[in-house]
Amino acid sequence: MFKVLVTRRIPDAGLKLLTGECEVEMNPYNRVFTHREISNRIKDKDGLVCLLTDRIDQEIIENGKNLKVISNYAVGYDNIDIESANRRGIPVTNTPDVLTDATADLTWALILSIARRIVESDSFIRANKFKGWDPLLLLGSEVYGKVLGIIGAGKIGTAVAKRSRGFSMKLLYTDPNRNEIMEKEFGARNVNLKELLKESDFVTTHTPLLDETYYIIGRDELRVMKKDSYLINTSRGNVIDEKELVKALKEKRIRGAALDVFENEPEIEPELLKLKNVILLPHIGSATVEARSRMSVVAAKNLLTGLKGEIPQHTVNLRVGD
Ligand code: GLV
Ligand code: GLV
After folding, report:
1. Does one domain contain both 246 and 300?
2. Is the entire prediction scored with pTM above 0.90?
3. Whole-angstrom Cα distance, residue 131 to residue 149?
């Protein structure tokens, strides 16, 4: 039987597939494994199911002498040293598609919540401050008919665009590739980043974290955004320069930000915590019972295929025939 390391408990649907066919060692703790814990445990394993919170670097990949496949339980895989995996010819897989709608839904929850000050309003009631209807109480911004700028027109970006049709929004997107569905079905216009930032009322990021997207929103980009615009991030923390974002929010150069992801998770930039015009969520983009369960099945299937020496469907590094 193949030996498999699962770095944290995942939903039963996928786990069952693994335990049915492999000898599974699963993280027994309700916390992430340390780097050393993974590095030691990988030595005799044939397969690895890991999380976006695990840094799978050269040391771990080289320690895994028998390693045949690395199955990341996430769509993003910036936590894995792809070059080291390539050198060993190890397929690295992810879990796309099954979390697209959950993440797009959450993005929309954030767009509406930041615009209409939902979290602030809830806190207001709980702080016993509601003294009755007031013409000037907690005024927010309209969403209907506004301009939505989507950075990264992949599957999640496209799903976010689809939902915007009900709000009659004008859609802009920026992406190295043209997206015909965005343009033909949703009427989106392909523009450069600067134009998108200049015109959008809501800017939302849906790129993977790559060298090219690291700090894609930094000091200069924040200066181009409209004064009454909002920034939403459900992708990866490092696509935004957090310190510069704090400055922009403090100086009211943009109206608000809604963030599901952060630069140094689980640490939160202390200045962000002090700001009222932000919503902060603990990286829950794919956190629905349905999506997480489907992710576990996809991750398990990817792993089992890789163990057989085949290239799994959701391989992000090697192509079939490599
Ligand atoms: C979540 O952030 C994921 O990449 O799946
Ligand atoms: C608001 O509650 C209204 O009736 O206008």
Report:
1. no
2. yes
3. 37
With respect to residue 60, please indicate whether it lies within any of the assigned structural domains: yes
Ligand 2: distance of its center to the CA of 203 in Å?
Answer: 30
- Give the pLDDT confidence of 178-211 residue by residue, as tens digits: 999 999 999 999 999 999 999 999 999 999 999 9
In a domain, 218, yes or no: yes
List pLDDT tens digits, range 19-50.
999 999 999 999 999 999 999 999 999 999 99
Its sign, for the CA torsion 33, 283, 30, 295, is negative
- Do 63 and 165 sit in the same domain of this protein? no
| Ligand 1 atom closest to the CA of 77, numbered from 1 | 4
Among protein residues, the one with the nearest Cα to ligand 1's atom 5 is 74
Instruction: List active site positions.
Output: 236, 265, 283
One domain for residues 156 and 34: no
Instruction: Supply the residue whose CA is at minimum distance from atom 1 of ligand 1.
Output: 74
What kind and span of H or E run contains 244? helix 242-250
Residues having CB within 6 Å of any atom of ligand 1: 52, 74-76, 99, 285-286
Strands 256-259 and 278-280: parallel
β-strand 92-93 against 22-26: which pairing, if any?
A: unpaired
CATH code for the domain in which residue 240 is found: 3.40.50.720
Ligand with smallest separation from the Cα of 314? 1
Task: Tell whether 119 and 250 lie within a shared domain.
Answer: yes
